Amino acid sequence: MAEPTSSERVEPVDSPKSSGQRNSVERGWTWSFPVYAMFSLAVSGPMFARLQDRTTFLVSLATTTIFVFIFIWSVLVPGIILLTIHFLKRRSERLAMIVIDGLMAVTSTLLLLETFSHRISGGGFGVVTVIACFVGGYFGMRLARLRSVRSFLSVAALGSLLFPISLLMVFHRDASRPAISTTLEVGNSVPVVMVVFDCLCGVSLMDQNRMIDVDRYPRFAELAKTSNWYRNCTSVHPRTDRAVPAILTGQFRKSFGSPTVKEHPQNLFTLLNAGKYDLTAFEPFTSLCPHDKFRDRSDPNLWTQWILVTHAISLVILHDLIPPDIPVETPSVPRAWFGLEHVTHVDTDQRHGVVRYSWDLERDQQFAHFLSCIHETDERNLWFGHFALPHFPWNYLPSGNRYSADSGLDRVWGTEGLFGEHWVDDELPVLQANQKYILQLGYTDLLIGQLIDRLRETNLFDRCLLVVMADHGIAFKKGLSERIPTDKTLAEIMSVPLFIKLPNQQAGDVIDLNVQTTDVLPTVLDVLKLAPPVPVQGRSLIDPEFKELPVKRFTDGERDFEVDASFEGKYQVLAEQLGRFGTGADPLKIYRVGPHSELLGKNVSEVTIQGRSRFQIHPVNYSNVTEFGNQAIVPVHLQSQITPAPSVNEPVDFAIAVNDTIWATTRTYRVSYLRDYWSAMLPESAFLKGENNFRIFQVTSSPAGVALSECSFGVPGRVPMLPME
Asked: Residue 122's pLDDT band (boundaries 50, 70, 90)?
């Protein structure tokens, strides 16, 4: 056979199989950028954005943890997804396209949830939101097949690199810890003791004469006798991570930035450190101390930190994505996310530097450790303590006993919202929360006594500069927030106590000048005769030329408030408080918060008994017979569920008798999620040492008077599901 001529020679071509493989791979790479862009916009981007907004949590992480976290969610996870798609495309074009369509639908749905889940709700179960997400996911999948959309997403893929870059920039900015490098001259090197309590409204300490209630708070009254009590002192912000930096820096700013030393390089700790003071700081919330003062702190390993940050961000996103009207209880966000470090071990022998406890746990041990650090000395020393008291969890009594374990920031019955800071529209749970707050304030008074005693033991009480104050107050108004101020709650949230005992001061004084927490730092510096390198906005309260401002200033970061300097609104709060709970002169008044409070102190034989009640009691946190006096937890706080559920919406009244004397009255709540529950607080004086007998009675009223029907006890009740929104 003749050889073909050159003009007839046919060039070799690819086999159908190799050509199909190459085209498949090419089409696969065209999908890589859109898939990566959607993953970044819907998954890694929101993670990075939330992390860089929570700077207190961010700067607690090691640099390696941040880089590993970014690598995993910007490179590793999307890389695995893309390689999986290309692997599938080589074997089944149809299967690969199903996976791509699914990814586009899921990420589109996540984007819609991110934008609208808390703005669109309805149908009782988030129906509108769910429908919108399914529709959005479907169209997202279809639109992603359009060439113009893929081109846009390909460009967006490059732009998504800004997410990790932005996170790294924020971390680098806030993680560095500068200090005042020069030595500052101290003209009066007296010891300084400063205690900042949390969530303490200054009005809470007053009696009907606008003085310290000596019967309820005797040690605060003792402190006032030898110090300047600034009765008209107010905070400048309702949040601890803003209010404490305002105290420590003397600066009022609408935007306070993150509570780190990078953001606030000039503060009480850095100034006194530059003045050669030895620092001991119990500060669990902010990070304003110089980094070298954390020398006794051991950071967790890389794996532990990576698990912590991933777990925390996942739960935060989950809370944000679930529509508010879907009755799903999600796990609690870790305390570390809010700047509340979860510390598993504290060296109780540590006496210097920053001592870090979990903010809301072991508060009695924290204060005892703080007192043990105070010692007699002629050296320059600062002992600073920030303690979450009388802040909830409310579980301490004025005697020092507890009625529940220190279990962290548990949600309070009668609250709503993600952080449990919004009171429901039912007066009783708000009154009961206020009652527990006042009882824990009595415990705070006990600690003040221990502080005074310790300072006297160490011969520091006369010599030192002593400051006792709070960062902000708290409001108890049904239907309103305990923390976000309105015209009705501003006075409670702004009012804080401030006691300043100057060195060698012997007699106290009550001062009603317009004073704010930003005036504390310049006062301390004035006493020490230490000039700050940068002037502060606050003013020294011992300056002979001090002149009060005509208005008070307060901000919650979004709104600014200006209040007349006299701040008369606080006395309206005082009148309401006295009407509710009286003063310490009537110690049982605080327990008369329920219906039929006239029954308190009566023997059950003095009241008409009408057989058995149809309601059965299911204890949530107590037993009907309890040994008293031999355990750490005293059974004075009762929580119960009842069955059967009441057939009408009206509450059911109850009386609680201990050893046949009625010591508390209460009722079921009007709140939907607590409709079949009640709680009550009893005085410790109701109990005898040893075995005590609980009897629970339903209380009914008629024209003939009040009657009791005894309830039986059933199996323990379940804890109610508290709403997250």
From this structure: very low
> pTM score, two decimals?
0.82
- Kindly report the average pLDDT of the chain as a whole number: 85
| Three-class SS state of 196 | strand
DSSP conformation letters of 206-261: B-TTSSB-TTT-HHHHHHHHTSEEETTEE-S-SSHHHHHHHHHH----SS---SBT
3-state secondary structure of 692: strand
Give the pLDDT mean for 420-432: 93
d(CA 57, CA 338): 7
Q: Tally Cβ neighbours within 10 Å of residue 609.
A: 12
Which residue, 588, 259, 575, 284, is CA-closest to 409? 284
Distance between CA 459 and CA 287 in Å, rounded? Answer: 31
Give the least confident one: 222-231, 332-341, 477-486, 715-724. 332-341
Q: How far apart are the first and last CA of the chain?
A: 88
Confidence of residue 26 (pLDDT cuts 50, 70, 90): very low
Q: What is the pLDDT of residue 23?
A: 42
What is the C-alpha separation between 423 and 394, in angstroms, rounded? 16
Flag whether pLDDT at 525 surpasses 60.
yes
Per-residue pLDDT for 351 more than 50?
A: yes
Are 195 and 385 in contact by the 8 Å Cβ rule? The answer is yes
Residues 6+ apart with CB under 8 A from 686: 636, 658, 659, 661, 663
Residue identified by tokens 């996942």 is: 314
CA distance 327 to 64: 39
DSSP line for 172-185: HHHH------SPPP
Output phi, psi for 9, to 5 deg: -65, 135
Q: Look at residue 75 and tell me whether its pLDDT is greater than 70.
A: yes
- The answer to whether the beta carbons of residues 406 and 632 sit under 8 Å apart is no
Structure tokens given for 495: 């009012």
Name the residue among 705, 595, 608 with its Cα closest to residue 652: 595
